[in-house]
């Protein structure tokens, strides 16, 4: 662990990313303390510019506090990002591991299925899924996971293909270990690093997809999120720029931070890049 | 003696109105480009009252009448009409020498076929507008005699080219009007001929050289452009690429900005025939909304002025009754009714709920419901978000649901799977045409859109509605509608929110586009462009 941190911190931008991400997480947890009221509350004069009428970042067309929305929206964005990624990674690992380990017709079946999902443009597919199920936090998580898992599955399959003939796996076979045990306890731990990297980058993509959906009006109308704020402020852009600018910056910074962290993890976990300076 | 109304004088009046606006004479020629938003599903105005069809089809099809801005009848395909003493026979004297765009002559057989075979059968509102019509006699090619079961004074308000387009018998006879090819290749008698419809881009109409109004139209060509994105529409209006956008084609927030620009104007005229009212429908058959007290409390707790000011940028008028104040011209609107405050009265709402037994639990919640929102754009979402807050303050906890149009229509009008639904209705120029469908027991028509979804049924109201439809005497009719509004203000199966004001944004070069009460749904036969 200590050596991992040593490797990680060599990449300054990755450290910066981690700091920003930590900040976003703190804001997400502190939101109920900073802005105890419902972020949908009509808090005062509508369309007040930043700094006026007691609004740090201004208010929107209904007089809702943009800053409160960003703070509460942080939780939504991170939560959806993490949940969707978790679901996608679990599904992707399951499919990829089976395909890579067993090969043959299992591989064919699973990979053809994966390819079918990969041929549909992911954002359009996500829109379709959310439009079919009614827009809610569950349907958004499901939609993002459905469009994200194929990448994980292909990666894991590749790792399994290259690892399954290695000596330690063959040793496991000779010792009479079950397939499940070999997959879970022997091979999987050895391909965790790329999974962690792809997972961390996927969180950023998931946040972007969620924002895009909310922007198009397919977000959960009962939950405050950054995409929702931008969607609500889009028509006001020329008369109240602050309504969508600040949530936009929040998305930009968070996604950038997660990408930096992902990059740092990749540098630290990938042995071939370890000597890179 | 038969009551006879000759309306030739109105022609002169309209002529003066059109000419009096500017000192200069009308200039002929030019191409007029306007926004049609969204792209219409077809151009069959005899099948659907869908808004975008209305923006195009009335320029191709005429009605028996048009209406001026004060809702006076202007002759169109009918030169004059007579109503018999008992009100049960209406004779239309049709214009001679009118031909369809394909050259066939227009006759009384077209009128008979249109009303009996098309409008009464497949038009959404036709069965109601013409419900008393039992048959139409055509003694000669230019006379159509409508025989009515009961007097139907409101019918004369429903004869515009938008509401009741007269369609060519020779192109529809023997076919199912729902699937006839006329839908996408309209042939009418109107000022403009259909030429081309480029899907996703524009629909083009050219001047009808043989139009029956001599010397008209002035424009050579009109092009309706489909521009899906709101900010692109605004930009196109700003740089003069398009000259006219109605029915919210330009969002209110941009319209307010364009209003202050040179060369662009904004008007709320041209919607008096449409008369739109925003409202909340309730499922009155199930708890909690089976209790009128909670519906009244909701009406009290919502700040109508806030909605108008903050979401519709000041365009609108708080509702004060089930009928719009536009009906005061005909004496049908009643003022001074209870339960319609312009500003929220939270305490009164809470008192009402307390009295009706809706006690707050430990979280202050008295009732819970899902609020469905009409999926026609951002404004309605904002309105829903406001209502969630405002009603939360009196202890009614809402969850918002926003679906696509077909799902929403099915939920509300076919499955009745809703509790509370934000919507808007066109009240049209007479309550029989636009308002009865919302409240009458006979209007509980599962599967039909925009009728009585609340399933409110009150025999006393039903008999008043029936009496109101048939009453020819203005004073008696006003009394009947006063009673109707009193009952509706007490029972509130629907909470009316505000009288909507749609905006038309137009380039000042465009003249005389608002000579019809139908505004953007009008024929545009007198419009011209200043060079």
Would you count the extended β strands of chain A for me? 0
User: What is the highest CATH level, the class of chain A?
Assistant: Mainly Alpha
Cα-atom Rg of chain B, whole angstroms?
Answer: 24 Å
Helix content of chain B: 25-40%
User: Secondary-structure element sequence of chain A?
Assistant: HHHHHHHHHHH
Distance between the termini of chain B: 53 Å
Quick one: how many beta strands of chain B?
A: 22
Just name the CATH architecture of chain A.
Orthogonal Bundle
Structural class of chain B: alpha+beta
Beta-sheet strand percentage of chain B? Answer: 15-25%
Q: What's the name of the CATH homologous superfamily of chain A?
A: MetI-like
**What's the Cα radius of gyration of chain A?**
22 Å
* Biggest chain contact: A-B, 22 and 25 residues
Q: In CATH terms, what is the fold-level topology of chain A?
A: MetI-like fold
Shape designation of chain B? globular
Low-confidence stretches of chain A: none
Biggest beta sheet attributes of chain A: none
Helix content of chain A: over 70%
Basic shape of chain A: elongated
List keywords for this structure.
heterodimer, A: 277 residues, mainly alpha, MetI-like fold, 11 helices, elongated, B: 531 residues, alpha+beta, five-stranded antiparallel sheet, 22 strands, 21% strand, disordered N terminus
């Amino acid at each position: 662990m200590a050596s991992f941190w040593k490797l990680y911190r060599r990449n300054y931008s990755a450290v910066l990313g981690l700091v920003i991400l930590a900040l976003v997480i703190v804001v997400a947890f502190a939101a109920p303390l900073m802005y105890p009221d419902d972020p949908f509350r009509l808090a005062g004069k509508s369309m007040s510019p930043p700094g006026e009428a007691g609004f740090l970042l201004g208010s929107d067309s209904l007089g809702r506090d943009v800053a409160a929305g960003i703070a509460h929206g942080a939780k939504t964005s991170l939560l959806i990002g993490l949940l969707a990624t978790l679901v996608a990674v679990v599904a992707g690992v399951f499919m990829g591991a089976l395909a890579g380990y067993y090969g043959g017709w299992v591989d064919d079946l699973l990979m053809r299925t994966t390819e079918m999902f990969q041929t549909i443009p992911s954002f359009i597919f996500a829109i379709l899924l959310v439009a079919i199920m009614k827009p809610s936090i569950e349907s958004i998580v499901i939609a993002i996971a459905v469009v994200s898992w194929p990448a994980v599955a292909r990666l894991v399959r590749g790792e399994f293909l290259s690892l399954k003939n290695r000596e330690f796996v063959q040793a496991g076979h000779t010792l009479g270990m079950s397939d499940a045990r070999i997959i879970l306890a022997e091979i999987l731990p050895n391909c965790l690093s790329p999974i962690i990297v792809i997972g961390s980058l996927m969180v950023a993509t998931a946040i972007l997809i969620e924002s895009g959906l909310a922007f198009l009006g397919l977000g959960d109308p009962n939950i405050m999120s950054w995409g929702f704020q931008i969607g609500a402020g889009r028509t006001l852009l020329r008369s109240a720029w602050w309504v969508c600018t600040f949530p936009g910056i929040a998305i930009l910074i968070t996604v950038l931070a997660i990408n930096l962290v992902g990059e740092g993890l990749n540098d630290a976990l990938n042995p071939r890049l370890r000597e890179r300076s | 003696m038969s009551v006879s109304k000759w309306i030739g004088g109105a022609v002169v009046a309209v002529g003066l109105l059109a000419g009096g606006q500017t000192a200069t004479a009308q200039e002929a020629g030019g191409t007029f480009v306007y926004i049609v938003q969204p792209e219409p599903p077809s151009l069959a105005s005899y099948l659907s009252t869908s808004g975008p069809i209305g923006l195009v089809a009335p320029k191709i099809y005429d009605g028996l009448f048009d209406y001026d801005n004060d809702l006076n009848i202007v002759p169109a395909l009918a030169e004059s009409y007579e109503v018999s003493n008992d009100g049960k026979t209406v004779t239309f004297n049709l214009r001679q020498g009118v031909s369809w765009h394909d050259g066939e002559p227009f006759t009384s057989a077209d009128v008979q076929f249109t009303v009996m075979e098309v409008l009464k059968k497949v038009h959404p509102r036709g069965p109601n507008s013409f419900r008393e019509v039992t048959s139409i006699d055509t003694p000669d090619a230019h006379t159509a005699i409508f025989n009515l079961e009961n007097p139907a004074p409101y019918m004369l308000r429903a004869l515009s080219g938008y509401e009741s387009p007269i369609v060519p018998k020779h192109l529809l006879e023997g076919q199912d009007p729902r699937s006839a090819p006329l839908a996408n290749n309209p042939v009418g008698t109107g000022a403009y001929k259909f030429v081309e419809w480029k899907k996703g881009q524009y629909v083009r109409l050219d001047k009808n050289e043989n139009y029956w109004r001599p010397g008209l139209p002035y424009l050579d060509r009109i092009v309706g452009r489909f521009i899906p994105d709101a900010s692109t529409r605004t930009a196109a209006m700003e740089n003069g690429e398009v000259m006219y956008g109605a029915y919210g084609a330009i969002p209110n927030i941009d319209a307010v900005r364009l209003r202050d620009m040179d060369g662009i104007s904004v008007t709320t005229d041209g919607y008096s025939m449409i008369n739109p009212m925003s409202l909340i429908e309730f499922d009155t058959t199930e708890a909690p909304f089976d209790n009128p007290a909670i519906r009244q409390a909701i009406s009290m707790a919502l700040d109508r002025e806030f909605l108008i000011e903050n979401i519709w940028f000041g365009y609108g008028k708080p509702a004060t009754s089930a009928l719009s104040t536009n009906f005061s011209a005909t004496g049908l609107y009643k003022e001074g009714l209870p339960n319609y405050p312009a500003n929220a009265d939270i305490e009164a709402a809470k008192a009402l709920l307390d009295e009706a037994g809706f006690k707050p639990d430990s979280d202050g919640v008295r009732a819970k419901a899902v609020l469905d929102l009409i999926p026609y754009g951002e404004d309605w979402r904002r309105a829903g978000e406001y209502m969630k807050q405002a009603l939360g303050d009196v202890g009614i906890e809402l969850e918002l649901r926003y679906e696509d149009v077909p799902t929403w229509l099915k939920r509300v009008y076919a499955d009745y799977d809703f509790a509370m639904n934000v919507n808007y209705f066109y009240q049209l120029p007479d309550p029989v045409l636009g308002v009865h469908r919302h409240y009458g027991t006979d209007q509980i028509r599962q599967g039909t859109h925009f009728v009585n979804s609340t399933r409110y049924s009150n025999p006393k109201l039903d008999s008043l509605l029936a009496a109101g439809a048939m009453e020819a005497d203005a004073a008696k009719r006003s009394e009947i509608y006063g009673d109707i509004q009193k009952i509706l203000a007490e029972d509130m199966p629907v909470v009316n929110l505000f009288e909507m004001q749609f905006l038309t944004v137009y380039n000042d070069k465009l003249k005389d586009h608002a000579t019809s009460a139908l505004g953007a749904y009008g024929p545009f036969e007198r419009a011209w462009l200043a060079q």
